[in-house]
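Deliverable D2.4 — example input (structure tokens):
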């Protein structure tokens, strides 16, 4: 593509840099030539572009996988553009069917308000609140009224709506599709009209809705937005996407020590994808780190740096330093500074029953397997006898490298 030919404004080095930042780690940026024109125009005129992310405040499992899109927003924000964090308090009352094979229940107003505050707190851990425009789509959706809704519905046809993958599959299998579900992508698209969005971000499952926004902006005489989708983040196992149900996640509210240790547990291969999607380091800095590792530097150094960056983002730099020291202490056989306490009655008690009672083993059989594998310690001493009984007293139980519990047995 001849970059100079596709825009009326000069494609300077800073515009090229902005395009590279935009493309970092993305799944798709469509249409790329239109986005380049917007970037060049913005630099030439000094008018920031309007970058929109809409999220329905459904009850989330908040983990760092959810921050991938927010990180991209922050990168664009740091380029000087206007970031709009849109709470879909109106669209939540419809229910987004994206990726579903049945209708998703709508939320109550009370649920929406509680969850909206949760999302806002989450966003402010990544975005700069002073440079973020927080909006609610009820601002323009409620006043639209019945007449406005009908006029909006007239701007999109059923055939195109049925091209949406989840609608098509449900229709072919004879599953119910409610008319109100067609309104969801229309209302999300109308958000882009109301906000005069230049770029809308979303997950890969939102591509259809984002394209509806482009179509509606054209229908209303606006310049169509570009769309940017981000990939899903693999979890700790490096196989499945990060989720609580897979137990391969890092919650953004987890303790610093746990967060740091979990980042260090990922594979060396997965680490580089996490760097691309989660780190705020430049691609040049990441490439330099990767070259050093390829040249013989211990990959753990890179992983420690990533763990400290992520921990500091959701806690503080001091917490990240303490978490690193805590990890070093534990790797050398030490006990963390902060561990949970529990009191259990029933002494003398077998080690297997105690592990289960303390929540460190799922069952007696699980406890036996842990002991056989040398993964159980009592007061730093490895337990090899599955028949061990503990008398009344206070003990520090350890399972594996990261699970500790101070147990007072009576």
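Example output (designed residues):
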């Amino acid at each position: 593509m001849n970059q100079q030919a596709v825009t009326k404004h000069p494609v300077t080095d800073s515009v090229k840099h902005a395009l590279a930042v935009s493309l970092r780690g993305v799944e798709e940026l469509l249409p790329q030539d239109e986005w380049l024109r917007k970037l060049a125009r913005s630099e030439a005129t000094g008018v920031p572009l309007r970058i929109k992310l809409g999220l329905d405040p459904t009850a989330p499992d908040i983990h760092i996988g959810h921050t991938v899109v927010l990180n991209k927003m922050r990168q664009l924000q740091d380029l000087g553009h206007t970031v709009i964090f849109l709470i879909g308090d109106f669209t939540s009352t419809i229910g987004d069917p994206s990726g579903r094979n049945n209708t998703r229940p709508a939320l109550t107003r009370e649920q929406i308000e509680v969850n909206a505050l949760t999302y806002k707190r989450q966003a402010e851990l990544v975005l700069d609140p002073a440079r973020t425009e927080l909006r609610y789509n009820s601002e323009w959706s409620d006043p639209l009224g019945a007449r406005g809704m009908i006029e909006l519905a007239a701007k999109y046809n059923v055939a195109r709506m049925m091209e949406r993958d989840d609608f098509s599959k449900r229709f072919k299998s004879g599953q119910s599709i409610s008319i109100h579900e067609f309104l969801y992508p229309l209302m999300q698209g109308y958000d882009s009209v109301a906000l005069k969005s230049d770029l809308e971000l979303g997950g890969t499952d939102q591509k259809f809705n984002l394209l509806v926004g482009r179509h509606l902006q054209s229908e209303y005489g606006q310049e169509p937005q570009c769309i940017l989708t981000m990939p899903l983040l693999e979890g700790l196992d490096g196989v499945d996407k990060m989720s609580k149900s897979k137990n391969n996640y890092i919650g953004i509210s987890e303790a610093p020590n746990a967060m740091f240790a979990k980042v260090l547990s990922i594979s060396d291969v997965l680490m580089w994808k996490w760097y691309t999607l989660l780190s705020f380091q430049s691609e040049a800095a990441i490439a330099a780190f990767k070259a050093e590792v390829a040249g013989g530097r211990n990959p753990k150094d890179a992983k420690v740096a990533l763990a400290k960056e992520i921990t500091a983002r959701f806690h503080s730099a001091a917490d990240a330093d303490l978490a690193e020291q805590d990890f070093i202490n534990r790797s050398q056989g030490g006990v963390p500074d902060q561990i949970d306490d529990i009191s259990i009655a029933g002494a003398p008690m077998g080690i297997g029953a105690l592990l289960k009672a303390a929540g460190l083993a799922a069952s007696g059989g699980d406890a036996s397997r842990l002991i056989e594998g040398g993964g159980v310690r009592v007061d730093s001493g490895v337990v090899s006898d599955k028949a061990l009984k503990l008398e009344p007293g206070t003990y520090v139980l350890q399972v594996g490298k990261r699970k500790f519990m101070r147990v007072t047995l009576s």
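The radius of gyration is 26 Å.
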